[in-house]
Specification:
The protein folds into 3 domains: about 180 residues, FAD/NAD(P)-binding domain, CATH 3.50.50; about 90 residues, 2-Layer Sandwich (Alpha-Beta Plaits); about 70 residues. α1 runs parallel beside α2, α1 crosses α4 and α5 packs across α9. The longest helix has 17 residues. The strands form 3 sheets. Strands 1, 2, 8, 9, 10, 11 and 17 form a 7-stranded mixed β-sheet that branches. A 7-stranded mixed β-sheet has the order 6-5-13-14-15-12-16, with helices on both faces. Strands 3-7-4 form a 3-stranded antiparallel β-sheet. It is of the alpha/beta class. The chain has 9 helices and 17 strands. Bound molecules: flavin-adenine dinucleotide. Flavin-adenine dinucleotide binds next to α1, β2, β3 and β16.
């Protein structure tokens, strides 16, 4: 049986980010590290976007960035400058290749293609069972959702950010490649929170994603019908679909943390690193994995990593409301963007605002609705 200092299970965004930060830090040079994933990650299966003020770790693999975004709805539509932030785009293939190159250069890292069956913390050692063998690790970082327990509980509602995207190419220049459409709620809401997300990467190429924040998924045809309809309303008729992307990201305040133990930490979406109110995960994962690296140099007990913050409570109330009144998402986001500076919203979503700044943002939201949600939480 092979024994490792660290085992990372799942080498998607969070597993690879953590591995990358480990191999970049000499503290981990003498540690035996094992990465396990059931597949070889080298495809463009995700288009990751996030905002960032400064230069970032991933700048060399950014394919496109925007300093202006568009927000659209029936009540409020505007192009908005977001400087000093940049909205950055990374294609997953570039990310996987970049990290794999860095990781494979290190002789203390082993990568295997096996499927995780179970992870058991025995107290002094962790057993990782795959479809082929058993591994032992001192610490295990797991990004594989091994159970659906978060879906089967009643305490915290589970919405999904679900979407299909078309990469569209036109013959003639059509797109304003300087502006990314963050949310366009002018699409028919049909009793949900539905919007179009558009990333123009050049004047002739753009990704159109028909997105919902709602409980139930649609059939593929329904998303695709809406993208075609949206393109038509924009006068785009002569185009080729070069690629498609599909996703479903859980939006919930379910406490994934409670599955952690002294030697096993759940990371990425499986660790609750997805921002519940938006589904954004990538940048949060970057910040958390950097913190984790610092933490590992001083601490042994993984139960002490990460605490619940005030932002968890804000997300909880927001999701409670969005779940209960899914048809009102467009109005809620519209009010948020109409009454606040977008840079302040980004700072708030990054969980970097002071309590005073939080209060100012909250004052722009429907107070009575949120009070009702607070009462429901307190008295239930
Ligand atoms: C299409 C798409 C677009 C997204 N766009 C954005 C975005 O723009 N911005 C943003 O912030 N977030 C985005 N997200 C959300 C989030 O960033 C991603 O889902 C991200 O990949 C989550 O990282 P993760 O490590 O938790 O999970 P994953 O990246 O999904 O990694 C999990 C890994 O576990 C492996 N695995 C699964 N089961 C097993 C098993 N039994 N044994 C071994 N390995 C297993 C998988 O192969 C995978 O490699 C997007 C998500 C999707 C699906």
């Amino acid at each position: 049986m092979q024994k490792y200092d660290y085992i990372i299970t799942g080498t998607g965004a969070s597993g690879l980010m953590l591995a990358y930060h480990m191999v970049m830090d000499s503290f981990f040079n003498q540690k035996k590290i094992l990465l396990i994933d059931k597949e070889i990650k080298n495809q463009n299966d995700r288009t990751w976007c996030f905002w960032e003020k400064e230069k970032g770790v991933w700048d060399s693999i950014i394919s496109k960035e925007w300093s202006q975004v568009f927000f659209g709805s029936q009540r409020f539509s505007q192009d908005i400058k977001i400087t000093p932030y940049q909205y950055k785009l990374i294609r997953s293939k570039d990310f996987y290749n970049f990290v794999h190159t860095a990781v494979q250069a290190k002789s203390n890292v082993t990568i295997v293609r096996e499927s995780i069956i179970a992870i058991i913390d025995e107290g002094n050692i962790v057993e990782v069972e795959t479809d082929q063998r058993l591994y032992l690790g001192n610490k295990v970082f797991n990004s594989v959702l091994l159970s659906n327990v978060y879906k089967n509980q009643q305490k915290y509602p589970v919405l999904n950010q679900h979407f299909i995207g078309w990469f569209v190419e036109t013959k003639e220049p059509f797109f304003d490649s300087k502006t990314a459409t963050f949310m366009d709620f002018t699409v028919d809401q049909k009793g949900n929170t539905r919007f179009m997300y558009v990333l123009p990467t050049s004047e002739k190429e753009a990704l159109f994603e028909y997105t919902l924040f709602s409980e139930h998924l649609l059939t593929d045809q329904e998303y695709e019908k809406e993208i075609a309809k949206y393109l038509l309303t924009k006068g785009i008729t002569d185009y080729t679909i070069t690629e498609k992307e599909k996703g479903c990201i859980p939006m919930t305040c379910y406490e994934f943390r409670k599955h952690n133990s002294e030697n096993v930490l759940h990371i990425g979406t499986a660790g609750g690193w997805t921002k519940p109110s938006t589904g954004f995960t990538f940048h949060n994962t970057k910040k958390k994995s950097e913190k984790l690296i610092t933490f590992l140099k001083k601490n042994d007990n993984l139960l002490e990593f990460g605490k619940r913050t005030k932002f968890w409570y804000y997300d909880l109330l927001f999701l409670d409301l969005l779940y209960k009144e899914n048809q009102n998402g467009a109005a809620l986001f519209s009010s948020l963007f109409r009454k606040n500076k977008t840079t302040k919203i980004l700072k708030f979503l990054d969980e970097e605002t002071s309590f005073l700044e939080d209060l100012k943002i909250m004052a722009t939201m429907p107070a009575m609705k949120f009070l009702r949600m607070i009462c429901r939480r307190v008295f239930n």
